[in-house]
Amino acid sequence: MAALSGLLVLTACTASELSYSEDPSDYRNEVRMLQQRLDDDPSDAAALRDLGAIYMQTRRPNRAYDTLKRSYAHVPNDPKTLFYLGMASESVGRENAALELFSQYDAVPESSRYRSLMEGRYEWIVRQQARTEIRGLMTREATIADREVSPRILAVLPFNYRGVSDQYEPLGRGLAEMMIADLANVRELRVVERVRLQAILREVEFGQSDYVDRRSAPRVGRLLGAGRLAGGSFRVTQERDIRMDMVVLELNADSTPSVPAKTGALADLFSMQKDLVLALLDAINVSLTDAERAAISPVPTESLDAFLAFSRGLLEEDRDNFSAAAQHYREATTIDPGFSIAAERATQAEALSTAGGTAQNALSAAAEPMQSASALIQQRLNNMGRGYLGAEDLAEGIERTPAEEADGAGSTLLPLPPDPPVRPDP
């Protein structure tokens, strides 16, 4: 009754709105036609795909998985098949298989709606797996106390802000992100992925400034497998000058590399950030090839306002506020259209906003419009044997609604719920 009442409200609002449904009975005619096509041609990949998609939308993942595997065997590069088979794989506990399917999003044409859905689901699963990994390691910390950590693996933590004006605080994440991107060009190092880094920032309960503290660094290093941790702090003065201090800890060494502080005008932030990267590499005795130095040199943007917007996007993304993050990234690209990293992050955040979260959220985003709301109500009434829906029916409301059995074999009418019990007066 509630679902049908909702459709009545939808119809009353506007006849042009489209309706989506998880009720198997609403797909009966479509399923019948698809099954007829498969009777005629069991290798009809499109029919198998669409039938599997219906099974997923109506919460029958095992049927969906079996049906979509058959479609995939015939056409392994169809975007809709890849998305729905990925969703079905995830729902039946085959998360790694789902990840492999979703990872093919970059081969899907940009014009396809399934590219963004696949990218969002891929990024969401990667984040969840990283958090699960860190939680698992934390439960086994006693057994990994002697875990070998490599000095080649470096983790760059967000910079801690020590200024007064809150508007500059997000720069701590932006600076770390740019350093991670630069250091990824150095073959002698392996930089911890930002996703895994954020997972530990969520799970380990101590202040950000303690991540590169000698007392806590061994724990963080073991959890990340990193032999080196780099972090620091920055301060912006009222005169718009900036000072950046960096600390590097080596877990397998007694000494602490010394990285000179960088100070200057905030307007020179980007060149100072490059100087800080080079100073860090020099402090840990890593030599650069000419190609590596050239790869580090370019700045992603010369606009401080664009970089601030980008940094705010990173902050919101770390809070799982993907829609807000996308807005900040888009703001950055509006200020500086050449800020390509911000554009890439905007696309990713928009995909996460659409297809992240629960599987049902992603399926809801993928659902295609069935028909107009009024036609859907009429179909349901026909299924109930009610007939045409007139104006008097809208006024009276609907008292009953069909219930579909789990296997989709048919529907029965549910009785009205009993009246609530009468409680005696106190």
Which percent band covers the strand fraction? 5-15%
Provide the CATH top-level class of the domain at 140-299.
Alpha Beta
Largest sheet report: 6 strands, mixed
Low-pLDDT runs of 5+ residues are: 1-19, 371-380, 383-426
Number of DSSP strands? 10
The secondary-structure element order is: HEHHHHHHEEHEHHEEEHHHHHHEHHEE
Number of helices: 18
CATH superfamily of the domain at 140-299: TolB, N-terminal domain
The average pLDDT score comes to: 82
CATH topology grouping of the domain at 140-299? Rossmann fold
Helix-residue proportion: 40-55%
Name of the CATH architecture of the domain at 140-299: 3-Layer(aba) Sandwich
How far apart the termini lie comes to: 33 Å
What form results from the Cα inertia axes?
Answer: elongated
Structural class: alpha/beta
Task: Round the Cα radius of gyration to an integer and report it.
Answer: 28 Å
Task: Please outline what is shown here.
The chain is α/β, with parallel strands linked by helices. 53% of the residues lie in helices and 11% in strands. Among the domains are: 21-134, Serine Threonine Protein Phosphatase 5, Tetratricopeptide repeat, CATH 1.25.40; 140-299, 3-Layer(aba) Sandwich (Rossmann fold).
Tag the structure with descriptive keywords:
53% helix, 426 residues, 18 helices, Rossmann fold, Serine Threonine Protein Phosphatase 5, Tetratricopeptide repeat, two-stranded antiparallel ribbon, disordered N terminus, alpha/beta, disordered C terminus, six-stranded mixed beta sheet, elongated
Helix-strand blueprint:
Layout: H1 2-13, E1 18-19, H2 28-40, H3 45-57, H4 61-74, H5 79-91, H6 95-102, H7 113-139, E2 150-156, E3 160-161, H8 171-183, E4 190-191, H9 194-203, H10 217-224, E5 226-236, E6 241-250, E7 262-265, H11 269-283, H12 290-296, H13 304-318, H14 322-335, H15 340-355, H16 359-366, E8 371-372, H17 373-384, H18 391-396, E9 402-404, E10 411-413
Parallel strand pairs: 2-4, 2-5, 3-5
Antiparallel strand pairs: 1-8, 5-6, 6-7, 9-10
